[in-house]
Amino acid sequence: MKTTLIIKALLCLLFISVPDYALSDNREKNDTTISLKEVTVQAEFVQSVGNRDEIILTKKQREFGTNALDAISSLPQFSTAISATSLQTADMRSVAIFINGMPSDAATLRTYQGNDIKKVTYYHEPPAKYQMMASGPVIDVTIRRRKDRLYSAYINALNAVTTGYGTDQASLTYADSLNMLTANYFIDYRNVDRSTNADYDYRSALSSYRSRDGQYSGHYQYGQLIYQRYQGANLFNANVRYGNRPGHIRNKQSTLYTDNARDLSGLRDHDLRSDDDRWSADLYFRHDFAGKRSLAVNVVNTFSSSESHNRLWLKMPEQYSSMDYDILNNIDNRYYSIIAQADYTTPLWKGELNTGAYFNYKELRQSYNGGPESYLNMRQHYAYIAYTGRYKRLSYYASLGANAVAQHPVSGQSFVNVIPYSSLTLFYRFTRTFSTRLIAKLKGTRPTTGDLAENRVNIDSRFIATGNPALKPYRTFSLTFKPQYSTSDGWLSLSPSIEYLYSHHPNVPCLLSEGDNIVMMPMRINARNELNGTMIVNYSPCNWMMLQSYYQYFHDGYSTPSSTIRHNYHRIGGMVAMSYRRLQFIASVNSPDKSFSGDMVTRSGWQYYASVSWKKGALSAGVEWRYASQNDYVRYRGIGFSATESTCWKGMKLSLIHISEPTKNLVAINLTYFFSKGKARKQAKKSLNNSDNDSGLIDSNTAKQD
Fold first, then answer.
1. Phi, psi of 300 (to 5 degrees)
2. What does the pLDDT look like over 309-327, one tens digit per residue?
3. Which of 325, 225, 328, 330 is nearest to 279 (CA)?
């Protein structure tokens, strides 16, 4: 005990002149008593039941940053950030966001203020009703009730001063006791220089490309109109959305081509343009019955038109002009889908029963290089039942479901595949400071329409990527053990976890020989075994300071037609967040991130981030710095073939000598203004909402910033 007090005192003395302004004061306690059926406990900021944690933010957490997303990121469960456009857990896992029960995104959450948050429900794994909408952790943010009439506006502009980089957003809302109308616009744009170096070793020949100049330009933008009406026991919500994602990558490269002991030099040009226009209409209705029973119905209609124009051009010296090539890969897609879901919830046996059904129809028509259209349609049926209950200190969540997928391509084999879904979560609280959670889950994963489409795109003259219409859904079993310890005053928490995953016949990209060519195609392999371990430490020595660190270990084992693969990978990271009056400071560092998929390995470099922000009333201003120390790369390994592609994103000028350093390195200015007038009651909870982001394109024929 004495040692603990000494450590806390020394750390606080470092900043003795700083007043008591907290980013996240986990030590504040509410003395009210809450009755949870059989169990009565003192109120805490986190109440855990089965597969979820219900989190109440402190006053200082709600005041962190400029919006609700910033406030939630300050919780120990997540990675603290300001002006982020996504949410991650403390160990860097992507989080799916729901607002009042409906799937949403970070941009929409930013249009609320931290004080609007009533509670955050954190699901460590998606519950049965969200299985078709999320694959990892989920949060459901409940917005506080309001009264009378409300007008509000949110404006945010984050733009780099060193390169073409920006994220801008504007939102307007009107709400009264019965109606809510929101107009939202978001744009994420990039216009950055890049250098791309690549080596393709075909054993009999070597193609080496060194960047002369290159550039990526593109943006993602959407406009959205939402109307919601709540009257009595009925809720109606209509959402119309248009999104656009054009992109353009061009690289000019010096070429070294080695064949039959000859070294030949030339010039290569790679020009890739892609675009995706998407319309969606979302209708939702819910009726609340007596006795906390409810029935919700959601229908979503999506139409998109996407295209990719990819050109590879090689010019050799005149005496070797026979080696010249000019390859075009043009793809045009028309995509349509309809999603329908019904969900029913009712109290049962001192717990809660949830059951429902989901239907999804997808249709893709694709034309390659102006040829005849290929056609693919897919039907998906999903039914589920789930129950949440409690017995003394043990709470549990159990669910069962079945997912039937019918696939009908023009060429290839039609099939119907039924995949069971089940999950069991046990949560046990030993003491007020120590608890543990065990999660067992069986789920299915289906291929995307892009994976199934028979489009081909040249990465090099002899290296081709394509889809595979013969792919089928596959099953994954996972077992996760997550103990949790925190001190009674909340100044220290330890969150270890260990997870094992077994995938039966997963689909992964594999390298195959096709004459003189190498083809990368998603294929079904026998099995995949993964073992992941994580330790997260949160430490708050003072009210105005929070420290967070994590360590991760990954083991991945599987076999492809080319090789047997055993990957072992470690990752570490840390963050410090501090607050002084109206000033807030965040700094973080993360080691390289790797992902393994079939015969392909993707790696990013060390990531560094720092931000300083100042807030007064409705106005906030800040500066951000981002830096990546090493190049990103993608590596391919197969029988008779290997390749490495490295990309350097250029940022600000670091000196007068160098034009720019081959690193992601930028400084951005952030301005935020939040205006509101009047009060309005909270619109009712929308418990269902679905979306479809499929396009029919694969990564190799999509121009994007990695």
1. -130, 130
2. 999 988 988 888 888 889 8
3. 225
